[in-house]
Amino acid sequence: MLRLVLFDIDGTLIHTDGAGIKAFGRAFEMQFKIPNGTQGMKFSGRTDTGLARELFTRHAVETSRENFQAFFDCYFDWLAHMLTEVRGDVFPGVWRLIYDLQSLPTPPTLGLLTGNLRLGAELKLRHFNVWDFFQFGAFSDEHENRNEIARAAHDRGSRLAGRPLRGEEILVIGDTPLDIECGRAIGAKVLAVATGGSTLAELESHRPTWAVTNLEKVRAREICLR
């Protein structure tokens, strides 16, 4: 039986019509006077800290702590603004799956496993009234590598459970091959959902435990008891 369900955010729970990508570009231009800095970058499944490092390296900006801090402070301001202007939404099936998981006789802990920084994740999910459903999260404040973030989530979930959780007791839900990879890094089951940057066929080629077009195709009891 599943004891811990870890959700990715962008492309899995919500879409923000590119608010995060736009905020990245605006913040970089404002702080370092370089327009169109994010052009050609791939954001899906990546971590905010890793993306910022790539952005700095591409444009010969020093990867100092001070520059990261200034950039992300500006990014959060822009993100909060962009979220008020874009047409984003919660993906189909998300609300029902969350409610169904909470209604199980022994509900699993719900957590976040995301490449977002914690404040960015909170800004996005509070905007769509989803933040308060999760008991904890693991974010890219902790590590640039997605697999290491997954290990942090595993450790945190185990502490809440009061014992080390086995891989088969954990489900990672995400929309990219990188989500599948980080789930495997902790031995978890993986539910891949084709609502983000990858097609169903691409996700299936990476052999997740389940792959679906959207979360409307999922029933909490089926995945938790298998």
Essential attributes:
9 helices, 2 domains, 8 strands, Rossmann fold, globular, 226 residues, six-stranded parallel β-sheet, alpha/beta
Q: Could you characterize the architecture of this molecule?
A:
With 226 residues, the chain is of the alpha/beta class. The protein has two domains: 4-16 and 89-225, Rossmann fold (3-Layer(aba) Sandwich); 19-83. The chain has nine helices and eight strands. Strand 6, helix 7 (177-185) and strand 7 (189-193) form a beta-alpha-beta unit.
Could you give a quick summary of the protein structure above?
The chain has nine helices and eight strands. By secondary structure, it is an alpha/beta fold. Helix 6 crosses helix 7.
Query: What is the architecture of the largest domain at the second tier of CATH?
Result: 3-Layer(aba) Sandwich
CATH-derived topology of the largest domain: Rossmann fold
Oligomer: single chain
- Give the structural class: alpha/beta
Q: What is the total tally of β strands?
A: 8
Extract low-pLDDT stretches: none
Helix content: 40-55%
Give the mean pLDDT: 94
The major pleated sheet works out as: 6 strands, parallel
Total of domains: 2
Classified in CATH, the superfamily of the largest domain is HAD superfamily/HAD-like
Radius of gyration, in Å, reads 17 Å
* Helical stretch tally: 9
CATH class of the largest domain: Alpha Beta
